[in-house]
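for the writeup, i need someone to sanity check this before i put it in the appendix. the sequnce is what the collaborator sent (i think, or maybe the updated version? ugh). structure was predicted straight from it, no edits. if anything looks off just tell me and ill rerun, i have time this weekend
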Amino acid sequence: MVDAAAPVIAAAAARDGVTIAWERLPYGADHFLATGETLPEEAFAHLHDGVDAIFVGALGDPRVPGNEHARDILLGLRFRLDLYVNFRPVRLLHESLCPLRLPVTAAPAASAAPAHARAAGAADRTIDFVIFRENTEGVYLGRGRSKAVGTPEEEQIAEEVHTAPRVSRILRAAFEWARAHGKGLVTMSDKANAVPAHRLWQRLFGEIGEEFPELTREHRYVDALAMELVRDPTRFQVIVTGNLFGDILSDLAAQLVGGLGLAASANLHPGRPGLFEPVHGSAPSLAGKGVANPMAALLTGALMLDQLGAPLGARALETGVAAAIAAEITTPDLGGTASTGEVAEWIGRRVEGVEVG
């Protein structure tokens, strides 16, 4: 998918006069199996200091059943680069992609300028919201201990870590994004009724929210939020939550708008190079068959171009993907018959301004 998407992303960037110089790093599963090496220190230093953005292909290989290769690279980069914002846009590009029975309309094409604010609870039948997931704490830190492993009394303890500085900055990032993009509603989700540590999120959400008086803020326990996302996702605008809940909710939300084949994400720390990742993971059974969906990679490219100062290119990728879906130029996961390359090439011609049928 990276091979198919990269030239299209580069063509889109050219609309803003931006040139993408791709550098391919060799640290895939084959390299790991041959050397035992995931991401050496010199490679990490290069990614820290020598690039403007990092674009990650699909990670995961059945030959590495413990998944240590993918975990060390992906989580390692998030933690070590302190990419504390996992940003997941959720936008319905075509009505046919939504599995819900409620009436919905496709979200209008994004513009380079901030959207007009819409009041919380407004009668808007589009699915168009974003999720801010805290990316550097929670149970993903891997803290804990084991006892009596392999016995009937085995005990596994995972520690969930939340600190005020890191919770504050993800909450502030969500509020600031909502203000900058004309959104009116910020929803925070936790499970403080069962996990006392989550009360920190509630306190800081209230304190920081007071700095944004023009925004409506609301709280939902995560189980209730999951239910509401299925019942009526059109009412949400900005959702902010912790690492584990953000991971689960963002994949649920992706399915509401077409599935992981359309799911883009950005791992960000303002002022630093971001890590941009189509979140569908790998599908070894599909390798070499030309049927994998490149749209998530292209939409992730749009997020990358936004950070690199190429908003026209970003919008061209988004509208190109939406146009391909409307024209039924899709891979089998979306009901089409086109190959990976055919989909990317069709979108690429549209991005370059060539009329396509």
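The chain is about 40% helix and 15% strand. Residues 90-126+160-259 form a domain with the Isopropylmalate Dehydrogenase fold (CATH 3.40.718.10).
thx in advance!!
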